[in-house]
Amino acid sequence: MSPERSRPRLLQAMMDAFRLPDLRRRILITLGILVAFRFVAHVPLPGIDAGALAQLFETNALVGMLDLFSGGAMRQFSVAAMGIYPYITATIVMELLMPIIPRLQALSQEGEAGRNKISMITHWATVPLAGLASYGQLVLLQRADPPVLASTAPLPMAAMIISMIAGTIFLVWLGELITEYGIGNGVSIIIFAGIVAGLPEMIGQGFLAKDQFGGLVVYILIALLTTVLIVIFTEAHRRIPVQYARSEFRGGRMYKQSGSTYIPIRVNSSGVIPIIFATSMVIFPGVVASYFAAPSGSDPNFANTIVNLFSPNTAMPVGLFYWGLTFILVIAFAFFYTTVIFEQQDLPGVLQRQGGFIPGIRPGKNTATYLNQVIRRVTWAGALFLAIVAIIPFIVREITDIQVIQLSSLGLLIIVGVVLDTMKQIEAQLLMRRYEGFIK
What we know:
By secondary structure, the chain is mainly α. The chain has helices spanning 3-6, 9-19, 21-40, 50-59, 61-70, 73-76, 85-97, 102-108, 111-142, 154-181, 186-197, 199-208, 213-235, 273-290, 302-309, 319-345, 347-353, 365-400, 409-432; strands at residues 237-250, 253-266, 356-357. Strands 2-1-3 form a three-stranded antiparallel sheet.
């Protein structure tokens, strides 16, 4: 047996990738840019009380979610503390506005030139969104107890806001460099790198829970089963057969050509967006109420009740309200966002313009009705999957009783999605050069 046959498939494919100069260059560029990103994530802003910031992370769930998108940079409150989530917000807003604003809808149908214009508008929209988000974060730190900011004078505040905007735009630029010269989707790779950078700390927290060995084993098993579930539902899709019939005139004669393919309707078409929307909406009332809550040691008021209701760390049975509301909102947003995506794609219109049809279904309105029915049925499976994944941290906490490790379902979704997408891109590069890839 040759050494190549005895090696694991993944290892052999990676070795094949590094044998190709172009692919090796892309992988090394991606790794180099990620190293630069991690350096930037550790450049702190001046005037931050590290002890008060650590205490804030223990009591505020919103900053924990923001830290996920900043790749851990918010925990040090560096110049990249906002990560690239203002750019993600601008992208989502543009996607939601396209069906509403006719000019944007027309741009989306103009091919590459239209997409470039929409991309430019998205980049410009990122700047004010980053400014508002950075100001909001600084106000949140200023009102924390104890306060995290040492000075709230206008000039230092303006300097910090400008620095944070520059950090966000720099990370977006790094992501675009990865997309153009590296491997994978650059923005997703940046988020992925930030989440993975926090894994050593999570492993260290796991050693703190070694006295709960049984719970730790169950915790690891649930995390692995969740990862397998995410892989299955990320790749799952419903194939709708499509046939094409075209007529061509050559030499005065009409020739009919036919072909068949399929439309893959993904079970989870909306990705992680429903979990982001739902989590943001559920956390928001508690964050607002925390500004009016009575301080610890005094009699609690109505704002304290709201904070407890909308906190992910509240014990049972009150904690069921937060996670139950999250479950329902994830399902609702999954249907909403999937509907928006497929309305933008206009599949019935595209099929009709290209001379395609679904066997047994008339083109036009009947095709639209049939596709909507299929999408609704498939989306139920995807929405329930996302809702279950969203509440898995609560299920893990109740089963294992481990509090020192926080399993992030959103982080798992992002990691698995980015790994699968990057593997497919490397696989495509290898197949073009007739090498065996990762995926059978």
